[in-house]
Amino acid sequence: MTDDQATPVTVIGLGSMGRALAEAFLGAGHPTTVWNRTPAKAAPLVAKGAVHAESVRAAVAASPLVVTCLTTFDDTRSALEPAGTALSGRALVTLNSGSPADARATAAWAAGHGARFLAGAVKNVPAAVGAPDTLLYYSGDRSVFDEYEATLRVLGGDTVHLGTEADLAALYEMAVGAMLLPALVGFFQGAAAIQARGLAADSMVRFTGKWLDMIKSLLPVYAQEIDTGDYSDAASSVDLFLAGAAHDKALGEETNVDTTWIDPLNDLLRRAVAAGHGDHSISALTEVLRGTASRGAGRSS
After folding, report:
1. Measured in Å, how far apart are the chain's first and last C-alpha atoms?
2. End of a domain among 175, 190, 209?
3. Looking at the structure, do residues 25 and 167 belong to the same domain, yes or no?
4. What pLDDT digit, counting tens, does each position of 167-206 carry?
5. pLDDT recorded at residue 178
6. pLDDT class of 83 with cuts at 50, 70, 90
7. Do 144 and 276 reside in the same domain of the chain?
8. CA torsion through residues 170, 175, 181, 184, sign
């Protein structure tokens, strides 16, 4: 990268992800300014060539591109408020969690301060920042994405602009992220059951990976069923899943593992059966979740 291609960038928020973002910018040759409420967190980055700003206002003023990595949109607005007029004309990219409504509120707040706004999400762990297959998606001001796409792409090779609506990244972040905790708790339950037999949790990792690959292969099928509202081709029916509820209870009793976290999921299955979805594909649960079970049953019968 030549000097005229190096975009100055500021990173605000130096937790594990924020540090990874700053390191990626530094590694790609971008002049990088950093700021954090706890100044000591900046020291390792300064040792690698970053400039530590003494105030958030100075940090914002240092670069045309400001990337924040704080916990929530509220935290982002709170941290940036003292920057005041320094935000005017800056491209503000937020990489944090929060609801679509929070994203819309932050977009309005940024516009009120004269900033051009792009909301985003990093769909991987800090160690994966900068990898060719790491996914980041953004939504909001298209001109910001177009102007700084090459700079943002150093954070992950799979970089996507979802649309100009500022809340789309937050919507997809929550929609996709909804899978994480149930999947992890399922693994943790399995690990506890394996250990109850004196076996190592590590012994199930390879098999779990294969299982997740199988689930991944089914997602396009289920998405098609949901988009068309046709659940009649039931390779795995709601009834079949509900039959497994007794096995969950038996496993818990045999291994002394708490499986009660599954109870609400089994209740969702029962509600789907009551709505006429028993012999439909398991993807028909979508109809129950969005409160259209009766309509869904009618369309797929």
Report:
1. 59
2. 175
3. yes
4. 999 999 999 999 999 999 999 999 999 999 999 999 999 9
5. 94
6. very high
7. no
8. negative
Residue 293 pLDDT: 52
Q: Are 106 and 54 in a shared domain?
A: yes
Query: Same structural domain for residues 112 and 33?
Result: yes
Task: Decide if 83 contacts 68 (C-beta within 8 A).
Answer: no
* Per-residue pLDDT band at 298 (split at 50, 70, 90): very low
Query: Which residues touch 139 (CB under 8 Å, ≥6 apart)?
Result: 103, 118, 119, 120, 161, 162, 163, 164, 165, 166, 167, 168, 169, 170
Q: What angle do CA 236, 193, 174 make, to 5 degrees?
A: 55
State pTM to two decimals: 0.89
Contact 108, 101 (CB under 8 A): no
Residues 186 and 245 in one domain: yes
Question: Cβ contacts of residue 188 below 8 Å, gap of 6+?
Answer: none
Do 123 and 37 have their domain in common? Answer: yes
Range of the domain at 126: 3-175
Instruction: Assign residue 280 the CATH number of its domain.
Output: 1.10.1040.10
Say how many domains are in the chain: 2
Dihedral over Cα of 163, 167, 173, 174: its sign: negative
What Cα–Cα distance (Å) separates residue 88 from each residue in 113, 115, 139?
Answer: 6, 5, 20
My answer on whether 137 and 192 are in the same domain is no
- Gap between the Cα atoms of 195 and 10, Å rounded: 47
> Are 162 and 197 contained in the same domain?
no
Round the average pLDDT of the chain to a whole number and report it.
Answer: 94
Q: What is the mean pLDDT of residues 134-163?
A: 98
Label the pairing between strands 65-68 and 51-52: unpaired
What is d(CA 77, CA 73) in angstroms, rounded to the nearest whole number?
6
What local confidence, expressed as pLDDT, does residue 235 receive? Answer: 87
